[in-house]
Protein 1
Amino acid sequence: MGYLLLLLLLFFVPFLALAAALAFLVRPHPVHVPIKGRHVFITGGSSGIGLALARQAAVEGARVSILARGAARLQEARDGIRLATGVEVATFSADVRDADAVAKALEASGPVDVLVCNHGVFSPQELDKQDLEEVRFMVEVNLMGTFHLIKAALPPMKRNVKATGLPASIAIMSSQAGQVGIYGYTAYSASKFALRGLAEALQHELISDNIRVSMIFPPDTETPGYAEEHRRRPDVTNLIAGSSPGMKADDVAKTALDGIKSSRFIIPCNFEGSMLSIATAGLSPQGSYFTALVEVLFAGSMRFLGLIFQWNWFRIIERWHARMKNS
Amino acid sequence: MASSFSFLLLLFVFPFAALLLALAVLVRPRPARIPLKGRHLLVSGGSSGIGLAIARRAAAEGARVSILARDRSRLDEARETIRLATGVDASVIAVDVRDAEGVARAIEALDPVDVLICNQGVFVPQELDLQSLDEVRFMVDVNLMGTFHLIKAALPAMKKRARETGIPASIALMSSQAGQVGVYGYTAYSASKFALRGLAEALQHEVVADNIHVTLIFPPDTETPGLAEELKRRPEVTNKIAASTGGMKADEVAQIALNGIKSALFVVPCNFEGAMLCIATAGLSPQPSIFMAFREVLGASLMRLVGLCFQWNWFGVISDTPRRACRAE
C-alpha cells in the first residue's frame, strides 16, 4: 500500500511541478480582446475565409471593414453580409502590394482595433518549373502586403489602445503550409513561414502597447482561392496533401475569431492542426499554461510522428518518380 | 542479484535502442556525403565575413571556388586573400542578387555549380513602427528573393551535372538564429530568414530525386563586417536579448557550415545554444541524421520548456527596458 502511494507521488510530483512552473512562466499573459463595438478590418475580405470572418464579426456586433482588390466582389460581399445579418460593412478597394494605397485605405477607414491580415495568393508548382514572376507575386502579396498593412495600421491602433485602455489585435492568416514546407510550395511556404518570424518579433515589440499578435493556421479550406489553386497543383502535392479541402470557411473563421478574442499567439483550426502546432511550437511565445503543458509533454512524440510523416512523404516522392521513369 | 540488475539495465536500454533502430529506418532523405574536392562551389556574399571564410576553406580543400557579391573591388580583394592563403584562384562574379536576370546570366556563364551556398544577407534591426518600408523591402529582396534567383539560375545545370556524374550536389542556405526565433527588432530580418526554411523544406522534397541535398545553416551573431554594421543600429532591447547566446568567429562558422554541407545535413547548428535551438525548432523538417533525430525526439520536451523560459526572460527584459520615444506621427 505504501509502495503504491510512493509510486503515485513519484509520478505526480514532477507533473505537478511542471504544471506549476508553466503557470508561472507562460508569457504573454492572456487577455480578452473584445470585438463588439470595435473596428475589425479584414483584408481579402470579399471571399473565402475573409468573407466568413467579416460576416461572423458583424454578427457579434463589430464595426467591420473589408479590403480587397476588386470593387465588384466587394459590393457583392457587402450585399451578402447585409442580407445575412442586416449589418452594413465598409468596403475599401486596394491592392496590398501598393503601400500608398493601403495607407490611404486605412486612413479613410479610421483607427483599427482588430487588424486581420487574411489576404493571400497561392500558386503551387515545382520551383524549377515556376516563373519567378509568380514567386515574386506570392512574396509581394502574402508577405510585403502584410508589412504594408501593419505599418499603416499601427500608429492609430496604438493611440486608440491608449485612449480606450482596451487591448488591440493584429491577426495574421498563415496556413499549415506555414508550419511545414512540402513539394510544390517553395514560394508559398516561404511567404507563410516568413509571417511567423514577423509575428514572433512583432509580439515582442507590441506587448508594451497592449497589442496582441495572433497567427491562424488553417488546413486546405473550401474557398474560391482553394479551387483556383487545386487546378494547378502538381500530382505529388496532391498525393502528399490530399486532394480535398479539410475544412469549411465558416468553421475556420469561427476558430480564428475565438482565438483572436482569447489573444492566442498560435491558433490551429482542427485536430491535425493542433498536433502540427505542438510539433512546430519552436520558440514561439505561449500564453496559455494548459497548452504549454501539452506542448512540453508531447513535443518528443510529435517530433517522432513528424519524422514518420516525412518518411512517408519521401516514399511517395520516390514512388512517383519511379512510376514516371517507367511510363 | 547480478542477473536482475542486468535485466533492469536491459529494460532501461531497450526503449532507447528501439527508438534508435526505428529512426535508422525512418530518417529521410537518406544520409549522403557531398564531396568538395575538384567540384564547383559558388558562394554568394563571398567577398567578406562568413562567405569569404567559406570560400577560403573550400579552396583549401581542393574545390573550384566562385565568389559572388555586389562590389567589384571587394571581390578582387577577396580573390587576393584566397590566393594568398591557399594558392587557389577563385572566380569572381559582380552582380546584385536582387537582379534576377543579372544573376541568371552570370551563373549560366559559369561551369555548372555542384555546391551552391546562398550566403548573402543584409540585416537592419529596428522596431517595425520606426523602420522604413524601404529597409524592410531591402531585407526581403536580398535575403529571400535573392536566394530564389540564385537557386532558379543554378538548378538546371546542377541537376544535369548530378545526373551525369552520379555525385550528389548541394544547395546550402545561410539562415541565422533569427531564422529560428523572432525577437524584438527583427520583424523584417526574421521574416526573411524564416522564409528560407519554408523554401528549404519544400525544395528538398522537389530535388531529392535529383540527388541534390538542401542544407540550412543557423549561425549566432558572428564577428563580420556585416555584424559591425548591424550593431550600430540595434535597439537596446535587442542587444539584451541577443546576449542570450554567444558570438562566434566567421572562420569557426565557415568550418562548421562546410562540414554540415559535406554531411548533407538538413539543419546545421553552429554552437551549443544553436544545437538546443535546432532541437526546439525541429518542427516537421526532414532529418537525414539518425543521431540528430535521436537527440531531437529525446530532447524536444525539455527544449520546449527551455524555450518557454527564454520567452519568460525576454518578456521580462522588454517590460523592464524603458522604450525610447517614438518619433512624432
Protein 2
Amino acid sequence: MNHGQQSGEAKHEDDAALTEFLASLMDYTPTIPDDLVEHYLAKSGFQCPDVRLIRLVAVATQKFVADVASDALQHCRARPAPVVKDKKQQKDKRLVLTMEDLSKALREVNNSSSLSSCF
Amino acid sequence: MSLLERTHDGETKDPPSSSSSYEFTHAAAKSAVAQICETVGYNHFKDPPLESLTGFAIQYILQLGKIATSFANLNGRSHCNVFDIVLALEDLSGNDNNAEERGCSALRSVKLREIIDFVKVSDDGEEESLFLQTLPRFPVSDKRKKMMVPSFVEVGESPPGKHIPLWLPAFPDPHTYKETPMWIERGLDPRGDKIEQARQRRKAERALLSLQRKLVCRISSGDGDRVWGDMDVGTVKEVIREAESEVPEDEKRDGVSVVEAFAPALEAARDVVFGEDHAEWKQKKQKKKKPVALSKLRTEKKFLGEPLDLTLQMKGEDRSMSLREEDRDDKRRRAEFILRQCMENPVDLNQL
C-alpha cells in the first residue's frame, strides 16, 4: 500500500516535471526551425497539432547533431598538429569539419545505437 | 568557409527549375546543422562532411517520426503524444539496459533526461543560436487550385445526399449542366410604347407644320420673289422662335441638328443624324447654300433658336454677290417643293 502510494506520488512528480519541461520548451527555441521539423515529420506520417512535441523532436535532433559534432571536434583536436614554421600559428588551429573526424564520430554513434539499421 | 558564406552557397546552388521541395528543405537543414556545429566549436566546414551530417540529421527526424507513429498506431491512436516520442527515442538510442527499469513515467527514460539536461545547459549557457533566416511556410498550397473548386463547407451548401461528406468539393451549379428557365424580363408593353411614340411624333409634326405654314405664308404673301436667300437673319430667327414656343420643353433636346439644317452653312450641317433621310438631305444640302430641311425632316427633330444666330451671321458675311443669284433659284425651287409637300400631306394637317 505504502509502496503503491509512493510510486503514485513519484508518478505525479514525474508527470509534473514532464509538464514543466514541455512548458520550458516553449521558452527555448531550438536551432532547427519548427517548420522544417514539421515538414520532415509529416513526411514520415507523424501527426500532432502540439507545437511542444515538434520542439521536443527538434531539440532531440539538435542534441544528436551536437553530440556527433562534439565527438568529431574532439577527434580534430586530438590529431597532432602539422609541422608549423611559425610559433604563432601553432595556437590558432583551424577547426575544420572533415570527413575523417565525422566518420569516426558516426561510427561510435552507430555502434551504440540502432541507428545503423536506418542507413 | 564561414557559416554565412556556406548558407549563401547552399541556397544559391539550388536549381530554380526544381519543383520538389527537396532542395529547399535540404538547404535549410544544411544551414541549421552548420549553425549547430558552430555552437559546438567549429568555425570552418568542408562540404562533403556537412552534407552527410545533414543527411544523418534528416534521417534522424524521419526515423523518430516513423517509430513514434508506429507506437501510436499500436496503441490504437492516429495522433502521437509525448510518450510515443519518448519510446521512439529509447528505441533509436538502442539502450536495452533500462527496458525493465522503465516505469510508467516517461521521465525515467534516460534519453529524455539527457535532452532535459541539454536544454538546461543551452538555456543557462550562451544565447540560443536561432536559425538565421526566416523560412516561409511550406509546402506552399496552390490557392488558385483550391479556390477553383471550393468544398461544400466553404460554399455553405449542404450536399444533396447524406452519403456525401462536407469536405468534398461542391457540385457545380445546375445551370451549368441543366437547361434552366431564362430570366424573365420585365413585361413588354408594345401598345403603350407605340402610343407614346405616336404622341411624340404628333407633337413634333405639329410644330413642324406650323413652321412650314408660316414660312410658306411669308413666301407667298406680298414678297413673291423673296426667297430664302433674301430672308435676313432676323426674320428666320423670329419664325423659328415662334415655332419653338409651340414645342414643349422636353422635346428641345436634339435641336442642334435641326438648327444646323436651317443654317445657310452647309458645313455646319455635316454632323446631323437623320437616319434614312440623311443621304437625301445631304443631296439637297449640296445643291443649296441654305438647307431646306422642312421638306423631309423627321418628326423627331427639334428646334433651337440660340445657336442659329451665330452660324447665320457668320455665313451671311461670307456670301458673295455672284453666288446669290444661284441661291435664289435654288431657294425658289425648294419653296415650291415645300408647298407641294404641304398640300400632299393632308393627314398631317388634319392632326393640327
